[in-house]
Automatic annotation (TrEMBL):
Pfam families: Amidase. Transmembrane segments: none annotated. It comes from Kribbella aluminosa. NCBIfam families: PRK06170.1. This is Amidase. InterPro entries: Amidase_CS (IPR020556), Amidase_dom (IPR023631), AS_sf (IPR036928), FAAH2 (IPR052739).
């Protein structure tokens, strides 16, 4: 599935070799031909896309040069787009129409992008798969019996199939990184707070500025350089809040050459094993780093305690999720948590207890998060990037058991609790660090395998630059 990158298409548009109208018609034709089997695009907006493409061509003839001018793109269903429904997969809101565009949608339009439509998500954005009663199931382009990931699974599948050249998603539990890993594309989870999320809110909530804990919005693409292109459009404070006083200036990447990077490789998590296919992907990246002269180490006493990090992440993440549950469900979960054996310290038990956590205990978890952030700052004085898995396995078969706690994850023939795979997402999410998902080859079954490059807070260009260098000669995605 070899399609042009955004950078390549922009060069062709500038050279007059193609028009936006032609690119848009080609993308629409591909969606109409191929998406019935994949179900990545859940809401189409083709008439307005064609009109926007014509406007982009007119603007270019007049000498305009916006950063995404004329590029056909998609957006995750959870973003508000005027004239299109925003449901988050929730049946009660299948007909909800927002009154204004999400800020990131406005930024896409201002940058000249042509929006083809919206991509599929799980119910309430709360799964590692993308399926819901309204729009159905998104299949993995490489094996339709498997998931494309979640919650930005529709966006990742769309990119892998050539349904647009860029997409925007969101991430709190790997929702950008996991679909990219499963579908063989690129994604970047920005530093917490770098890109504002106004207008990506569950319906029918008003699109007011919010500072969500843990959650970010970010870019998805088919190349690392395209991630940087789209991040530069998305990043910067909300003009209704911090933007009143602040301007953004991200520092440059720490290094420009592969040989200057210092990389810590973390292959195993204390709470869940890493499957053989992902270990092989990590090895391919390590081999490329070593061949390029980078300093690679596998152990450091500076690495924060990953088991404690998983507990803190669960407390912060699931307490926030529980706060949005209907009160009857919340009370039931409180009762279940109270009945847990005090000796049960499994991640499932931690997640259940976290839903009903007190504010006092949340404050204690937040203080532990600050301790971890300090530890990461010390680590990044010695290293530039941490390389680690995104999940323990490639894409797994569809599993729509409504009792998600009854699901399991097969890791090399052994079953583990389904949600335990989130611990790798939490490594970067809990302290708010940037993380870039990159392809790292294929499994023996031909499934994509990705890894993540975690960087220092607000130094997003550092893992992005390393991703670009790894994308060069001897690319890892083949």
């Amino acid at each position: 599935m070899d399609f042009p990158t955004a950078e390549e298409l922009l060069a062709a548009l500038r050279a007059g070799e193609v028009t936006s109208a032609e690119l848009t018609d080609e993308a629409i034709a591909r969606i109409e031909r191929d998406d019935e089997a994949i179900n990545a695009i859940c809401v189409t907006d083709f008439d307005r896309a064609r009109s926007a493409a014509e406007s982009a061509d007119d603007a270019r003839r007049r000498g305009a040069e916006q950063p995404l001018l004329g590029l056909p793109v998609t957006v995750k269903e959870s973003y508000d787009v005027v004239g299109l429904p925003t449901t988050w997969g929730l049946p009660a809101y299948r007909d909800y129409l927002p009154a204004e565009d999400a800020l990131q949608v406005s930024r896409l339009k201002a940058a000249g992008a042509v929006i083809l439509g919206k991509t599929n998500v799980p119910l309430g954005l709360q799964d590692v798969q993308s399926f819901n009663e309204i729009y159905g199931t998104t299949n993995n382009p490489w094996d339709r019996a498997r998931t494309a990931g979640g919650s930005s699974g529709g966006s990742a599948a769309a990119l892998a199939c050539g349904f647009g050249v860029l997409s925007i998603g969101s991430d709190i539990a790997g929702s950008l990184r996991t679909p990219a890993h499963f579908c063989g594309v690129y994604a970047h989870k920005p530093t917490l707070g770098l890109a504002p999320n106004r207008g990506m809110v569950p319906p029918p909530g008003p699109a007011w500025p919010t500072e969500l804990d843990l959650a970010v919005v970010g870019p998805m693409a088919r190349s690392a350089r395209d991630l940087t292109l789209l991040l530069d459009v998305m990043a910067g404070p909300d003009p209704l809040t911090h933007g009143v006083a602040y301007n953004l200036k991200l520092p440059p990447a720490r290094h420009q050459q592969l040989s200057d990077f210092r990389v810590l490789v973390v292959e195993e998590h204390p709470l869940i094993p890493t499957g053989s296919a992902v270990r092989a992907g990590l090895k391919r990246v390590v081999d490329a780093l070593t061949a390029g002269g980078a300093r690679v180490e596998r152990h450091s006493p500076l690495l924060p305690d990953l088991a404690e990090a998983a507990t803190v992440y669960s407390q912060l993440h699931f307490s926030g999720a529980g706060a949005r549950f209907p009160i009857d469900m919340y009370r039931q979960l409180q009762t279940l948590a109270a009945g847990l054996d005090a000796n049960d310290q499994s991640l499932d038990a931690t997640r259940l207890r976290s839903i009903a956590i007190s504010h006092r205990d949340w404050m204690a978890a937040d203080a532990r998060r600050e301790a971890h952030r300090h530890a990461w700052r010390q680590l990044f004085a010695e290293f530039d990037v941490v390389l680690c898995p995104i999940t323990p396995t490639p894409a797994f078969p569809h599993d729509h058991n409504p009792d998600s706690l009854a699901r399991s994850l097969d890791i090399d023939g052994v079953q583990y609790p389904y949600f335990d795979q989130l611990v790798w997402a939490g490594v970067a999410t809990m302290p708010g660090l940037p993380a870039t998902a990159i392809p790292a080859g294929r499994s023996p079954e031909g499934l994509p395998v990705g890894v993540q490059l975690i960087g220092p807070m607000f130094e997003d260009r550092t893992p992005l630059r390393l991703a670009e260098l790894l994308e060069g000669p001897g690319a890892l995605s083949g």
